[in-house]
Amino acid sequence: MTKEVMNCISNPIMNRIIQSVSELGLCTTKQLSTFHKDIPQATMYRYIKKLVAAGVLTIVEERKVRNVSEKVYELSFDYNKVAMELITDAGKAGENYLHMFQQFTIGLTKEFSLYAKKEGIDVVQDGSGFRVSPFYATTDELKEMAQKIQAIIQEYSNLPNIQGRSYRNVAVIYTPPRDLEEELFMEEIKNFLDDKNRIKVWPSKVAKKKAVLQYMASKFQIGCEYTEKEVNAMIDLWHTFEDRFILRRGMVDMKLIERTKDGAIYVRLSPP
Predict the structure, then answer these.
(1) Which member of 65, 121, 182, 268 has the greatest number of CB atoms within 10 A?
(2) Is there a contact between 57 and 76 (Cβ–Cβ < 8 Å)?
(3) Per-residue pLDDT tens for 146-164?
(4) Is the distance from CB of 28 to CB of 41 less than 8 angstroms?
């Protein structure tokens, strides 16, 4: 997957074109313009040219219509399959997903920017808005909610373009799951970490010392055995104030890590 293809998929307007071609199979620029009346024809031609250059669209036929050559396009790949590959790539899933989201939000920001620059806008009357609604849900519950929201959107997406109706976009974003306990914990110890989340200073207060030791212990896998050399290497990797002994001994004293009597083997214990 080239960067150019990923940029096309991430671009809001080109993404709409790609999805339309995916649904229609074979189509012309004229058909796409009819499908997306809000996209100026010049813009449509420009983006289609970019999609062809990037290898996303393929010209499969050229028809003569009243002495004008009309090109027929199709997708060069399975759109849904490629999008899924991007966000499930073990090595670059996070990078790809963030890039796609950034391109998505750039498109939304541009749309809001154009609106905000208009004279005499009435945000309330125009019905534009955004909000965040926090909630708890399992993955299955989230899927169920998404299906219900999509059903509502689909009902309105089929409304004809008649006088009094304006073209609108509904952007649906489901944020990644958050571990609030972990976030609160990281907030508690942030003053003792550097920009790479390495322990940069040993706290003076007992409660903070315990929190820092818990953080250090979390870098070891529960139930795994480590030699003292391996423990020292891990501590050196995650601290910068050059006192591995105080961290190693502290984890043992707090029973975060268990050490054999001869000191040869260390085992990360399960949290209580």
Answers:
(1) 268
(2) yes
(3) 999 999 988 888 788 888 8
(4) no
- How far, in Å, CA of 78 to CA of 81, rounded? 5
Residues 56/5, Cβ–Cβ less than 8 Å: yes
Q: How far apart are CA 206 and CA 80, in angstroms?
A: 53
CA–CA separation, 100 and 56 (whole Å): 16
Beta strands in the chain (DSSP E): 27-28, 57-65, 68-75, 225-227, 257-259, 265-268
The H-or-E segment that residue 5 falls in is: helix 3-10
CA distances from 188 to 209, 212, 236, 262 (A): 11, 9, 22, 35
Nearest to 37 by CA among 164, 172, 162: 162
Question: In the structure encoding, which two tokens stand for residue 195, read together?
Answer: 């920009």
Note the pLDDT tens digit of each residue in 207-235: 999 999 999 999 999 999 999 999 999 99
The predicted-structure confidence for 165-187, as pLDDT tens digits, reads as follows 888 888 899 999 988 888 999 99
DSSP assignment of 41-105:
HHHHHHHHHHHHHTTSEEEEEEEEETTEEEEEEEESS-HHHHHHHHHH-TTTHHHHHHHHHHHHH
Tokens of 182: 């972990």
Domains in the chain, CATH or no CATH each:
1-115 (1.10.10.10), 181-268 (no CATH)
Contact by Cβ (8 Å): 51, 18: yes
| pLDDT greater than 80 at residue 188 | yes
Counting every residue, how long is the chain? 272
